[in-house]
Amino acid sequence: MKSGESYAAILQDIQFHPVTDAIMHMDFYQIFDDKPITMEIPIHTEGVARGVKNGGVLRYNLRRLKVRGLPGDLPDYIIANVTKLKIGQKLYVTAVTSDDYKIQHPDNTVICQVRTSRNIVEDLEDDEDEDEVAADEVPATETDDVAAVKEGEDN
Protein backbone atom coordinates (compact mmCIF):
# COMPACT_ATOMS: atom_id res chain seq x y z
CA MET A 1 0.00 0.00 0.00
CA LYS A 2 1.06 3.56 -0.46
CA SER A 3 0.94 4.28 3.26
CA GLY A 4 3.39 1.43 4.00
CA GLU A 5 0.90 -0.64 6.01
CA SER A 6 1.02 -4.40 5.68
CA TYR A 7 -1.94 -6.76 5.73
CA ALA A 8 -2.19 -10.53 6.09
CA ALA A 9 -3.50 -11.78 2.76
CA ILE A 10 -3.50 -14.76 0.42
CA LEU A 11 -3.37 -14.77 -3.36
CA GLN A 12 -6.86 -15.33 -4.69
CA ASP A 13 -6.34 -14.96 -8.46
CA ILE A 14 -3.58 -14.12 -10.90
CA GLN A 15 -3.76 -13.22 -14.60
CA PHE A 16 -0.89 -13.65 -17.05
CA HIS A 17 -0.29 -12.09 -20.45
CA PRO A 18 -1.06 -14.78 -23.07
CA VAL A 19 2.17 -14.29 -25.05
CA THR A 20 4.82 -13.02 -22.65
CA ASP A 21 3.53 -14.72 -19.47
CA ALA A 22 4.07 -11.43 -17.62
CA ILE A 23 1.78 -10.87 -14.64
CA MET A 24 -1.05 -8.55 -15.66
CA HIS A 25 -3.23 -8.55 -12.55
CA MET A 26 -3.35 -10.11 -9.07
CA ASP A 27 -6.20 -10.32 -6.55
CA PHE A 28 -5.52 -10.75 -2.86
CA TYR A 29 -7.89 -11.82 -0.13
CA GLN A 30 -7.35 -10.27 3.30
CA ILE A 31 -7.38 -12.80 6.12
CA PHE A 32 -7.93 -12.41 9.84
CA ASP A 33 -6.50 -14.72 12.49
CA ASP A 34 -9.86 -15.26 14.21
CA LYS A 35 -12.00 -15.80 11.09
CA PRO A 36 -12.02 -19.22 9.32
CA ILE A 37 -11.28 -19.37 5.60
CA THR A 38 -11.83 -21.99 2.91
CA MET A 39 -8.86 -22.95 0.74
CA GLU A 40 -7.72 -25.69 -1.59
CA ILE A 41 -4.63 -27.34 -0.15
CA PRO A 42 -2.43 -29.74 -2.18
CA ILE A 43 -2.08 -33.40 -1.20
CA HIS A 44 1.37 -35.02 -0.99
CA THR A 45 1.57 -38.81 -0.83
CA GLU A 46 4.05 -40.48 1.48
CA GLY A 47 5.55 -43.93 0.94
CA VAL A 48 5.16 -46.52 -1.79
CA ALA A 49 1.91 -48.45 -1.94
CA ARG A 50 2.09 -52.22 -1.48
CA GLY A 51 -0.02 -52.67 -4.60
CA VAL A 52 2.47 -50.63 -6.66
CA LYS A 53 5.27 -52.96 -5.53
CA ASN A 54 3.14 -55.86 -6.77
CA GLY A 55 2.72 -54.32 -10.23
CA GLY A 56 -0.23 -51.96 -9.76
CA VAL A 57 -0.44 -48.26 -10.61
CA LEU A 58 -1.29 -45.45 -8.17
CA ARG A 59 -4.03 -43.25 -9.69
CA TYR A 60 -4.89 -39.83 -8.24
CA ASN A 61 -8.53 -38.78 -8.14
CA LEU A 62 -7.82 -35.55 -6.23
CA ARG A 63 -4.69 -33.42 -6.20
CA ARG A 64 -6.08 -30.79 -3.79
CA LEU A 65 -8.60 -30.81 -0.95
CA LYS A 66 -10.96 -27.99 -0.11
CA VAL A 67 -10.63 -27.38 3.63
CA ARG A 68 -11.93 -24.80 6.09
CA GLY A 69 -10.12 -23.56 9.16
CA LEU A 70 -8.30 -20.69 10.84
CA PRO A 71 -5.44 -19.31 8.71
CA GLY A 72 -2.81 -20.17 11.31
CA ASP A 73 -3.99 -23.80 11.53
CA LEU A 74 -3.99 -24.58 7.80
CA PRO A 75 -0.98 -26.58 6.57
CA ASP A 76 0.97 -25.86 3.39
CA TYR A 77 0.08 -29.36 2.17
CA ILE A 78 -1.73 -32.45 3.47
CA ILE A 79 0.26 -35.68 3.81
CA ALA A 80 -1.50 -38.91 2.77
CA ASN A 81 0.25 -42.17 3.67
CA VAL A 82 -0.32 -44.78 0.92
CA THR A 83 2.03 -47.56 2.08
CA LYS A 84 -0.75 -49.96 3.14
CA LEU A 85 -2.80 -49.74 -0.09
CA LYS A 86 -3.08 -53.03 -2.00
CA ILE A 87 -4.27 -53.46 -5.58
CA GLY A 88 -7.94 -52.47 -5.76
CA GLN A 89 -7.93 -50.45 -2.51
CA LYS A 90 -8.71 -46.74 -2.21
CA LEU A 91 -7.62 -43.94 0.13
CA TYR A 92 -10.57 -41.82 1.29
CA VAL A 93 -10.56 -38.27 2.68
CA THR A 94 -11.42 -39.69 6.10
CA ALA A 95 -7.84 -41.02 6.27
CA VAL A 96 -6.34 -37.50 6.29
CA THR A 97 -8.65 -35.72 8.74
CA SER A 98 -7.28 -33.35 11.36
CA ASP A 99 -8.58 -31.33 14.29
CA ASP A 100 -7.00 -28.16 12.84
CA TYR A 101 -9.29 -27.98 9.79
CA LYS A 102 -12.51 -29.43 8.38
CA ILE A 103 -12.50 -31.13 4.98
CA GLN A 104 -15.29 -29.80 2.77
CA HIS A 105 -15.63 -33.01 0.69
CA PRO A 106 -18.03 -35.90 1.43
CA ASP A 107 -16.54 -38.78 3.49
CA ASN A 108 -16.71 -41.19 0.53
CA THR A 109 -14.50 -39.00 -1.70
CA VAL A 110 -11.48 -40.93 -3.01
CA ILE A 111 -8.05 -39.27 -2.93
CA CYS A 112 -6.16 -42.04 -4.76
CA GLN A 113 -6.41 -45.73 -5.55
CA VAL A 114 -4.18 -48.57 -6.67
CA ARG A 115 -5.36 -50.05 -9.96
CA THR A 116 -4.16 -53.08 -11.85
CA SER A 117 -1.70 -52.30 -14.60
CA ARG A 118 -2.41 -53.05 -18.25
CA ASN A 119 1.05 -54.57 -18.47
CA ILE A 120 0.05 -57.30 -16.04
CA VAL A 121 -3.00 -58.15 -18.14
CA GLU A 122 -0.87 -58.30 -21.29
CA ASP A 123 1.67 -60.55 -19.57
CA LEU A 124 -1.10 -62.95 -18.57
CA GLU A 125 -2.35 -63.05 -22.16
CA ASP A 126 1.19 -63.76 -23.39
CA ASP A 127 1.42 -66.72 -21.00
CA GLU A 128 -1.78 -68.17 -22.47
CA ASP A 129 -0.33 -67.91 -25.99
CA GLU A 130 2.61 -70.11 -24.98
CA ASP A 131 0.21 -73.02 -24.43
CA GLU A 132 -0.93 -72.82 -28.05
CA VAL A 133 0.89 -74.88 -30.68
CA ALA A 134 2.66 -73.07 -33.52
CA ALA A 135 1.26 -73.55 -37.04
CA ASP A 136 4.32 -75.45 -38.33
CA GLU A 137 4.15 -77.84 -35.35
CA VAL A 138 0.57 -78.95 -36.05
CA PRO A 139 0.50 -82.63 -37.08
CA ALA A 140 -0.87 -83.46 -40.51
CA THR A 141 -4.43 -84.67 -40.64
CA GLU A 142 -6.05 -87.02 -43.09
CA THR A 143 -8.54 -85.50 -45.51
CA ASP A 144 -11.28 -86.69 -47.79
CA ASP A 145 -10.84 -83.62 -50.02
CA VAL A 146 -10.69 -84.77 -53.67
CA ALA A 147 -8.66 -81.74 -54.79
CA ALA A 148 -5.94 -82.42 -52.22
CA VAL A 149 -5.73 -86.05 -53.36
CA LYS A 150 -5.44 -85.02 -57.03
CA GLU A 151 -2.64 -82.52 -56.27
CA GLY A 152 -0.69 -85.28 -54.60
CA GLU A 153 -1.13 -87.57 -57.63
CA ASP A 154 0.13 -84.95 -60.15
CA ASN A 155 3.55 -84.76 -58.51
From TrEMBL:
Pfam families registered for this protein in UniProt: Ribosomal_L25p (PF01386), Ribosomal_TL5_C (PF14693)
Entry's Gene Ontology molecular function annotations: 5S rRNA binding; structural constituent of ribosome
Occurrences of domain Large ribosomal subunit protein bL25 L25 (ranges): 7-28
Region (Disordered), start-end ranges: 122-155
SUPFAM superfamilies: Ribosomal protein L25-like
The entry's keywords: Ribonucleoprotein, Ribosomal protein, RNA-binding, rRNA-binding
InterPro entries, A to Z: Rbsml_bL25/Gln-tRNA_synth_N, Ribosomal_bL25/Gln-tRNA_synth, Ribosomal_bL25_b-dom, Ribosomal_bL25_C, Ribosomal_bL25_long, Ribosomal_L25_dom, Ribosomal_uL5_bac-type
A GO cellular-component term linked to this record: cytosolic large ribosomal subunit
BP-aspect Gene Ontology terms: translation
Taxonomic superkingdom: Bacteria
Composition-biased stretches (Acidic residues): 122-135
Ranges for domain Large ribosomal subunit protein bL25 beta: 37-117
NCBIfam families: bL25_bact_ctc
This protein's name: 50S ribosomal protein L25
